[in-house]
Amino acid sequence: MFDKSTWIRLPRNVVVGHGVLEQTLDAVDELHLAGRPLVVSSPTPHAVAGERVVDQFEDAGYDPAEVVIDEASFDAVQQVIAHAEDVDAGFMLGVGGGKAIDITKMAADDLGLGFVSVPTAASHDGIVSGRGSVPEGDTRHSVAAEPPLAVVADTEVLAEAPWRLTTAGCADIISNYTAVRDWELAHRLKNVPYSEYAGALSQMTAEMLVDSASSIKKGLEESSWIVVKALVSSGVAMSIADSSRPASGAEHLFSHQLDRIAPDPALHGHQVGVGAIMTEYLHSGPKGRWRDVRDALGAIGAPTTANELGIDDETVIEALTTAHEIRDRYTVLGDGMSEEAAIEAATVTGVV
Ligand SMILES: NC(=O)C1=CN([C@@H]2O[C@H](COP(=O)(O)OP(=O)(O)OC[C@H]3O[C@@H](n4cnc5c(N)ncnc54)[C@H](OP(=O)(O)O)[C@@H]3O)[C@@H](O)[C@H]2O)C=CC1
Ligand SMILES: O=C(CO)COP(=O)(O)O
Ligand SMILES: [Zn+2]
């Protein structure tokens, strides 16, 4: 008997374009959600877009509630859940970068409420995914969470955000190359389930972004359009896989470890980009494609060295040698790199 089944949960409305923040209400009305909206954001996104979303719902006769969180943590998820219960929220909108959107989707999942994703930065590919990513102690959890019912990505808002956030989003996409390599490796060595569709979509997304690099320029709103569509596509790959595997391999473990140990971590996307240069070197050796990864990052103005990340060399080496401990996810790092090998990889690739 054929007994396989699969659930792929995707958003119904993906609204991308100039000024579409003003269509948030329309995108929500289409979903036939009921009750009180709760707008969740972090400080800057709240000022940039959250307040405008609240005003829209107020003007339309809803009674919107709002909450502002400061960090991506399980405490923040609990804070949002408690607030949603207090105000008897009927559905939620996550307005912000990866932090606000992750917290909202995890709280929405816990409460069984619908959730709408309103990115204010093209900085990460969690905009669409049904995964939440939160650190806890020495580890980082990638947990199943509520995928958005709709995405409202206003390219005017995204283009006005600091440019480094957009280059971080590009680097998060470029890191799909090594993430897919790690996934394939884990499939071959550890029989980890692999989805050809999700792997191909993730890789194609990275290729299309790299091919468009000459159109991704500061001050050009079209850049936000190109990047956000790639971020959506990468998130869809994660939804198809029901895992962050298509977009998160050893380069992400390295970044998550930097978030733990670096005194002043850089942006998520920038860290995974630099990690991808080194993990590509580990996959394919000194003559391999690590230069292509580095050049693709360089072409869009993302960091390619520890110095550009603002992180010292010793911390980069420590993160490389300990990244495999972050979570139970088999990658090219295997059961850990020796310090000598980590120094070699980081030096040959020019990261340190
Ligand atoms: N679930 C998933 O599938 C994925 C999750 N992630 C997660 O997302 C997070 C990374 O996302 P990222 O967006 O980089 O992190 P943040 O949400 O922390 O945003 C980065 C910074 O940008 C600021 N910001 C956001 N929008 C604007 C704007 N329009 N103008 C000015 N500043 C702005 C934020 O302000 P403020 O400090 O006020 O918030 C913050 O300082 C990580 O926690 C990562 O693990 C990443 C990829 C996929
Ligand atoms: O950042 C992500 C994909 O880009 C999510 O991956 P994690 O599961 O490693 O948090
Ligand atoms: Zn990422």
From TrEMBL:
Glycerol binds at residues 125, 172, 252, 268. Substrate binds at residues 125, 172, 256. Keywords: Cytoplasm, Lipid biosynthesis, Lipid metabolism, Metal-binding, NAD, NADP, Oxidoreductase, Phospholipid biosynthesis, Phospholipid metabolism, Zinc. Belongs to the glycerol-1-phosphate dehydrogenase family. It comes from Haloarcula nitratireducens. Its main location: cytoplasm. The gene is egsA. It is found in: Cytoplasm. Its EC number is 1.1.1.261. It catalyses: sn-glycerol 1-phosphate + NADP(+) = dihydroxyacetone phosphate + NADPH + H(+); sn-glycerol 1-phosphate + NAD(+) = dihydroxyacetone phosphate + NADH + H(+). Zn(2+) binds at residues 172, 252, 268. One of its GO terms (cellular component) is cytoplasm. It is an enzyme of class 1 (oxidoreductase). It comes from the Archaea. NAD(+) binds at residues 98-102, 120-123, 129. Binds 1 zinc ion per subunit. Its cofactor is Zn(2+). This is Glycerol-1-phosphate dehydrogenase [NAD(P)+]. Pfam families: Fe-ADH_2. GO terms for biological process: glycerophospholipid metabolic process; phospholipid biosynthetic process. The lineage of its organism: Archaea, Methanobacteriati, Methanobacteriota, Stenosarchaea group, Halobacteria. SUPFAM superfamilies: Dehydroquinate synthase-like.
